[in-house]
Amino acid sequence: MVGIDKARGLKYFLFGSLYFSEGLMVAITTVATSLYLREQGVSIPITTLIVGVVNIPWMLKFVWGPVIDYFIRFGRKTFIIFGGGLTVSCMVLVSFVDPSSSLAPFTLLIFLSHVGIGFVDVSADAWAIDVSTNKNRGKINGSMFAGQYAAWAIGAALFPFIGSQYGYQIVYLVNALMILLILLFPFIVNETSKRKVKEKIASLVLKEFKTKTVLLIALFSPLVFMNEGIMSFIIPIYMRDGLGLSDVQVGFIAMILPVFLAVGSLFGGIVTDKIGRKSALYLFITFNIVGTASLIFADSWWKLSIIYGMIGFFMGGHSTVSCALFMDVTNPRIGATQYGIFTGIANVGLNGAGMITGTLAISLGFARTFLYAAWLFGPALLVLYFIRIKKDRNGT
User: Fold this and answer.
1) pLDDT tens by residue, 126-151
2) d(CA 58, CA 348)
3) Does a structural domain hold residue 246?
4) Domain count, the chain
């Protein structure tokens, strides 16, 4: 086995690859499943509702986190393999279910696949907290999000093409195979955990969440990710139903967002390690407000492509910086639990906003929905102003 601290750059590749599997699940849900359900005649509000429901496990990271911390003696890698195995199994099974006649089982299997990838996500986060410092945390988060968004981009282009040519059932099988191959990598990496003693999780969590900074970050986390929820849910549907593009065209344009998210994540990780968390967040969020509001002018595929890329770059930047901030204030003794709470609440904002996006688009129209998504950054900036960042928890 290879030690994670022995080989230069290994940690970046490891966490980037694990997040790559998460990006595949984002693409399979927000792009492939959305298009598949619309192809089967499912309405826009029901489609976005189902996409939101299957993403609920991302909100429950505060459940998976304590499990992982409680059984710390088994290490983080054990739960990565368990979660990945559950995801792969459910992806294989869902390929045999027809949503037009069995919508509930179809939804349940995708839901369970996200439970599995949720364990992968929380375990990878806790492992990253264990091996990172304030000097490289931004870059580690950049590699993680770059991996996730790169997979989202590949899936956004590849899955609709496969689905339109061979049927969407094959898409789920391809996704299962890709995640299975990724799971082989952690087997050759040696996990050297600094913590083997079971912690008193509940008391430590209560102590942490009594502090003003932690409470403000818990409030900030869902607000800053609401915009991403609306964008990722509504844009593929807007391209299909608003601009009249084919599934293949939707797939290729949809990949623009995650490509620029990946670039923005890497850039954001480098910038925030140099200028700090709050300064970087103010910069990326302000530009993203302008980009999101500009979508009201995206009445053609090329205008949408340009604006979409700009949004992706700045969204990737503030997502990476936000998660680096979450890690900064997380107590390493309960890394999976506390960071899982931060990101779980963030996903409540992301997924919650996404779930109602279809209803907003029907009642307000696409243009007003885009303006609403831009406005949501206002409360996030207000809360960010009051956050006071202290020294890194690891003292480095």
Assistant:
1) 888 888 777 778 888 888 888 988 89
2) 8
3) yes
4) 1
